[in-house]
Write a structure and sequence with these properties.
Blueprint (H helix, E strand, L loop, with lengths): L7 H19 E2 L17 E2 L10 E2 H7 L7 H13 L6 E2 L5 E2 L7 E2 L5 E2 L21 H14 L11 E2 L2 E2 H9 L13 E2 L18 E2 L1 H20 L3 H22 L18 H9 L5 H16 L4 E2 L2 E3 L31 E2 L3 H9 L3 H18 L13 E3 L4 E3 L5 H13 L7
Antiparallel strand pairs: 1-2, 3-6, 4-5, 6-7, 8-9, 10-11, 12-13, 13-14, 14-15, 15-16
Helix pairs in contact: 1-11, 1-12, 2-4, 2-12, 3-4, 4-5, 4-6, 5-6, 6-7, 8-9, 8-10, 9-10, 10-11, 10-12
């Protein structure tokens, strides 16, 4: 481990304890209702995207993103895998709103009574769909793969891959899900969509219209391909493992040429809202998908953004650098609706979820700056620590200095994702 700035060890221990407490606050026990939804009738505890009354359901994305922190027990992961598999679309379905759910689709979230909702913005099975996309959220297909991978990455529980869930083996379900997000043409493995047949590429941008090739979702696809390769190896299927490894390599080679931007970052997409993407750029580095000069260029661009104040505030991270807002009224080019103006929610507020990814990338060129960013992040958590009482809410989902904007207290990925990244950096000491 490299030299730490004073207080880093204490900050990391504080974060690990807070993450455990946020996970506990986010649990919904069988028979429990929360936020006007429920009760939980799925048969086992669920972990929702946060505590108090935010997001009263099970979100595949947020749960899976939290698993790398190592604080979720195996039985809760297995229940989540079975629940997600059971909600996979068994046949094509056209919703009455005009959206289309292909066979093999994975839910965006699942209600506490077990109903799959394939699109953001709804808790009603019958009313889901447009304007939140023609296709279901695309990223959840790859998060389903990652969720299963976490269950057996250490070589245990491999038998569940061939176990039938509602008559279909899990490994077959994983492959079916992986194939749902569209590509533009054969040989181009990057995830793709057009505006009239759009799918949300990443749920933390679900209120933004992105079209063309999609950066974040393509990174998730490469990760899922590697994870499927590992699971195929566990099943003794080396030809399939080799195929998925090759697919992941193809995506890795296509990322920089497709999404390169003069800022040094990668663009979020190649069609609508094609601005430099701080989150996606950092996540591509964190996922090990950029090599040599491309990787260094992104890391240095993130380093500049931290130093000049264009991407971070109080250790929280913006989606788009302030220098690259689309206009004076909006950070991104196009929103699904006008509910969130500039500097609110996904349209320019600052988030904790990607802080660890940015620290990881910045540490490759200047670890002292990365550590200072982490200290600012933990300082905000300490000041607003939700365990101090109802008047406090950190970790929030997102914040902004204008009018002291805060949204959704006790937010799960705001601590679990940074903790996982800091673990990967070797900043968290010992066993928790």
């Amino acid at each position: 481990m490299s030299d730490r700035q004073p207080g880093l060890t204490e900050d990391m221990l504080f974060l690990a304890k807070m993450a455990a407490d946020v996970i506990e606050a986010s649990r919904v026990a069988p028979g429990q209702a929360v936020g006007g939804e429920g009760p939980n009738s799925t048969g086992q505890t669920l972990i929702r995207p946060g505590g108090r009354d935010c997001y009263p359901g099970f979100w595949i994305r947020d749960f899976t993103m939290s698993l790398a922190c190592g604080l979720v027990p195996r039985d809760e992961i297995e229940h989540a895998v079975r629940l997600t598999a059971g909600g996979q679309a068994s046949a094509d379905w056209h919703t009455k709103s005009g959206s289309f759910v292909p066979r093999g689709s994975i839910a965006d979230h699942i209600t506490l009574d077990g109903k799959p909702i394939y699109f953001p913005g709804s808790f009603c099975y019958e009313e889901q769909g447009q304007p939140w996309g023609y296709f279901p959220s695309l990223d959840d297909h790859f998060y389903f793969v990652e969720m299963a991978w976490h269950l057996m990455k250490d070589g245990e529980n491999v038998g569940i891959l061939t176990e039938e869930i509602d008559g279909v083996p899990l490994i077959q379900r994983l492959e079916l899900a992986f194939a749902v997000p569209p590509v533009q043409k054969d040989g181009d493995e990057l995830v793709w969509c057009v505006e009239d047949k759009r799918g949300v590429g990443f749920g933390f941008c679900d209120s933004i219209v992105h079209t063309g090739h999609l950066l974040f979702c393509s990174v998730l696809k490469a990760r899922a391909a590697r994870q499927l390769a590992g699971m195929m190896e566990l099943c003794g299927d080396e030809p399939s493992a080799a195929r998925y490894r090759a697919l992941a390599q193809t995506i890795a080679e296509q990322l920089a040429p497709t999404f390169a931007d003069d800022s040094g970052l990668l663009r979020a997409s190649t069609g609508r809202s094609a601005q430099p993407d701080v989150w996606g750029s950092a996540f591509a580095v964190y996922s090990g998908l950029l090599k040599d000069t491309d990787r260094e260029q992104v890391c240095r661009a993130l380093h500049r953004g931290v130093l000049d104040g264009s991407i971070a505030w109080r250790g929280n991270i913006r989606h788009v650098p302030t220098s690259h807002d689309f206009s004076k009224t909006t950070a991104w080019e196009k929103m699904v609706n006008s509910a969130f103006t500039r500097n609110r929610y996904q349209n320019g507020a600052y988030w904790n979820t990607p802080t660890g990814w940015v620290c990881y990338a910045v540490a490759e060129v200047d670890e002292s700056v990365a550590q200072e960013l982490s200290r600012e992040y933990v300082a905000e958590l300490r000041a607003g620590d939700f365990r101090q009482g109802e008047a406090f809410g950190s970790p929030f989902e997102c914040i902004h200095p204008e009018e002291e904007y805060r949204q959704n207290a006790v937010y799960l990925t705001s601590v679990t994702c940074p903790l996982a990244a800091f673990n990967k950096l070797g900043w968290v000491p010992g066993d928790r």
